[in-house]
Structure formats: structure tokens, C-alpha cells
Amino acid sequence: MNGKETMGLRVENIVMSFERNVVLDGLTLDVPSMSFTTILAPTGSGKTTLLRIMAGIDKPTSGRVYYNDRDVTDVHIQERKISMVYQQFINYPSMTVYENIASPLRVSKEKLSQKEIDERVQNIAKLLKITHVLGHLPEELSGGEKQRTAIARALIKGSEFIFLDEPLANLDYKLREELRGELKTVFKGSTIVYATPEPIDALSMSSHVAYLSKGKVIQFGKVHDVYTKPRLREVGQYFNDPPMNMFDCSLSTEGGSARVVVTEELKLDFSKYKGVLREREYVMGIRPQDLSVVQNRVGMISFAASVEFTEIVGSSTTLHLIHRGNKMGIVIHQPEKQHKRGQEIRIFLDPGRVFLYGKRDGRLLIAQGQVVADAVPAS
Q: Is the dihedral angle over the CA atoms 231, 234, 236, 240 positive or is it negative?
């Protein structure tokens, strides 16, 4: 935490075991107050388990949970001012959308009048664009409307902490894209913790991101900071959409220069970084967005690659290529021509856009032209 952020939620030394299976292993995380923090990790990494512990649904095997410096580890979920939205469209099937949204207010200790309840329901429904279905039953709704209803029910409580467990997972691409744009603005005034395996969710909505691996948070920070300096190879590869390309490479120091070599055609002059290049083997990371089929900057290098297949997602196209046995993806917006399977094309790369990781420990050494401050040469 830096001095400008106030801690809203803290989990400390959390261990969660199911028989002999350790899901969370001494995990500690500080979530800033009023932040939109995404817990990012592949499926099966323990995101939902962590979210349930934070919310008070499950109790950890060991460790403590704090809300605003108050230990709430043993506080029952009904005594916590929280809301939770699940991956499944969980609504009360026999109640109208209106009553689903109003239900938390009807059992609230605030004892609100019908007029106050109606005003809040109408405001939330307008915000989430479901006013037209308030009189419908959940079974009459589309998937997007069902999830909007669940989100509205979570929002209307005015909870201090809101937990979202992959709430967009069961929606089609178009609806997910639409809701991403809206969720960033509707969740205000609360501390949000959002669990997802989708990097695009964190990149498009969050203020902070925590990457979970092997039961621990291995990197946490503001989204921009983690994205521009993913400190471990695992984070760098995963925290991009599509995933960052990774190439094994070796250091060549012939003639006093220092070159990082993937293939004879794909090699970069890294002589100015000789001070941190003390090993022979590295991994080079290149984002698909930083490769191009045209030379649009001075100093770019080029290499040949053949097309394996083309993937169109929304407004962008990903070309899946292979270069001397190295598979890679490249993002093209509004492609001018079709690329056929097996076709050989030229790919252009700006050497100043690459990431370099240690092969042995996976730690980031160079990030897009900058030596990482704590990159310590191996002895």
C-alpha cells in the first residue's frame, strides 16, 4: 500500500485447505478502500475460494480478515455490510424483477417506506437499463437482463463491500463487452473485489489487479503499473489479451556486442543492457499488439512467419503465426486483406517494445526499453 491509499479490506496469512489440497497458502492482500480490485488467475486457481473467505461465506483454515482495520474473521456474513454477485444468474424465480431488486430493502434494518423502496428500485433499474422488465419474472428475461437484475439487487443495498464472482462468464461476447463498459461506472461508493480469469475484465474496468498463483498473490498494484511492468513471466504472459508471446532466447556476446537471439532472423541488439545480462538463457516477451504487418515506426526489424489460422473477435483480428517453430499471435485492427493458411508474411517488431525475463527464475529484467530498478544480476 502506498501512503495515498486507505486500506479497505485486508486478508492476512490466509490458508485454505480441503483435506490435503492446499488452495490458498499464506496469502496476504490489502485492497484499497473504494477501489475496483480484480483477482486475476486461470480457472481453478482459488479465486472463488478467496472471494468467499473475504465475504464471510467460508472461514479460512487459518489467517484473518479485516474490514477497515476491524477483524471480521469470526463475524457472521449476515452481520457484514456486503453484497455478492455470482457467475450463475441467481434470482428468486417466483418474484418479479422489481421484487427481486427490492428484496434486500424489505428485510433491511433501515425500515424504509414503500415510497423510499420504490424510488431506489426505479433509480437502480434506470442505471442498469432494466426499467422495461421490472414487472417480468426472471424466466422471461434474457441472460443479460438476468445478470443485470442480480447486480441491481447487490447495488441497492448500498453495501460497503461488493464481491463479484465471474459475473460476465455466462454472457455472450457482445453482452460482456456492453456490461464491462457499464460496470466501471455503476459501482461507485463501495469497495469492489472482482474475480475473473479474463485479463480484459481487469484491463477495461479495474483500478487495481492482484494476480493469484499457487495459492499466493504474486503481484498486486494499480492496473497500469502491473501491465507495464509484469514482474514475473507468468504475469506478463497471462495479463494481456490475447496472451503475451514468449520466446526462448540466448545471449550472444561475439565482437563485444550483446545480442538476444531467438533465431538467426529474430535477434535484437541489447548491448546497452549488458550490465544486467549475466546469464546465457532468457525468455523474450512480445505483446501481440506490438507486432505489425507494416513498418510503421523507424528502427523496426522484420522476420518471416507463416499463417496458421485467423481468429476474429469483435472488432479485432488475431493472426496465429509460426516462425521457425515459434508460435505467436499478432493483433490486427481492421485488416486490409485476408491471410490464408500457410501464407508467408513479413512481421515487424520495435525492439523497444519487448520484455526480457530470466529463464531460470522468470523475473523481469527489461521492460520495453527500461531496465527494471531491482533487476539484480545473477552472481
A: negative
